[in-house]
Design a protein that fits this description.
Blueprint (H helix, E strand, L loop, with lengths): L8 E5 L4 H12 L3 E6 L2 H15 L3 E5 L5 H15 L4 E4 L19 H29 L2 E6 L10 H21 L4 E6 L4 E2 L3 H12 L3 H9 L13 E2 H11 L11 E2 L12
Parallel strand pairs: 1-2, 1-4, 2-3, 4-5, 5-6, 6-9, 7-8
Helix pairs in contact: 1-2, 1-8, 3-4, 4-5, 6-7
Length: 272
């Protein structure tokens, strides 16, 4: 299927690692040029070289802290200048899972950590989106994709749930505001996802259980496991990326203000 992404221009916040990196790679494979944003210039440059070598597309590494409005505005302007326009924005900059100090009971919360987590994920997406909108409007084509998280629907992590739920509201609100400008806005709720960081988590779990890493993962996703889902395995970052690339495409023009949930079927509720 031709997704119509050849020569499109994209910016991916959080694009040096994890789900953001996977999305940047898939966009480039479909023919897009991509600016990747994160705080670490070294990580950005390494990722840009890898993706460019594989795909032959232009990958522009731009160091940016999404908690700083001036840096965000400058980063988006640079992306537009170097790429020659902007059609797609992916907001994937955040600490995976949310602040560790907001997991569990309310009395465990460290206020400053909670606020920083919200500042990065929710306000970071808002800052990037605000800077990108005029360029998408000028292009007459826009796709904004917010990477949220399935813990919006699961009790336990108060900061993760709060920031991710707020991104759903943000998504729907902007979809209604921007739809007549040819801009769609959608949100993705990944479940537990295989990235560079999950190997260490699984190794620690395996050591605690006294089993192999593969067995620890199997137990975690089996019925009654910590991350039980319908398919019985961890989803891969590439699977989230495939969905994001579809939402960025011409083929998804009728989808906006919606939430997609590539979690492998976490939970037993009926959503409508």
């Amino acid at each position: 299927m031709d997704l119509g992404l050849a020569e499109r221009k994209a910016a991916v916040a959080g694009g040096s690692r994890g789900i953001g990196r996977a999305i940047a790679l898939e966009l480039a494979r479909e023919g897009a040029d991509v600016a990747i944003l994160s705080r670490s210039q070294a990580d950005l440059e390494a990722t840009a070289l890898e993706i460019s070598a594989e795909t032959g597309r232009r990958i522009v590494p731009i160091a940016c802290d999404v908690t700083d409005r001036k840096m965000v505005d400058s980063a988006i302007e640079r992306a537009v200048t170097e790429l020659g326009g902007l059609h797609i924005l992916v907001n994937s900059a955040s600490l995976p899972g949310g602040s560790p100090t907001a997991v569990g009971r309310i009395e465990s919360i460290v206020d400053e950590d909670f606020l920083h987590d919200f500042d990065v994920k929710y306000l970071g997406a808002l800052r990037c989106t605000r800077a990108a909108i005029p360029h998408l409007q000028r292009a007459g084509y826009g796709r904004i994709i917010n990477i949220s998280g399935a813990n919006a629907r699961l009790p336990g992590n108060l900061s993760g749930g709060a920031r991710n739920t707020s991104l759903v509201h943000f998504t729907r609100t902007l979809a209604l505001q921007l739809g007549r400008d040819g801009i769609t806005v959608n949100c993705i709720h990944p479940g537990m996802t295989r990235t560079e960081t999950t190997r260490a988590m699984l190794e620690a779990r395996a050591l605690k259980l006294g089993v192999a890493v593969e067995e620890a993962e199997r137990q975690d996703f089996a019925p009654g496991g910590r991350f039980e889902n319908a398919i019985g395995r961890m989803i891969d970052a590439s699977e989230v990326a495939h969905l994001a690339v579809f939402l960025a495409s011409d083929r998804a023009a009728a989808i906006t203000g919606d939430l997609l949930n590539p979690s492998g079927g976490v939970g037993k509720a009926v959503w409508y």
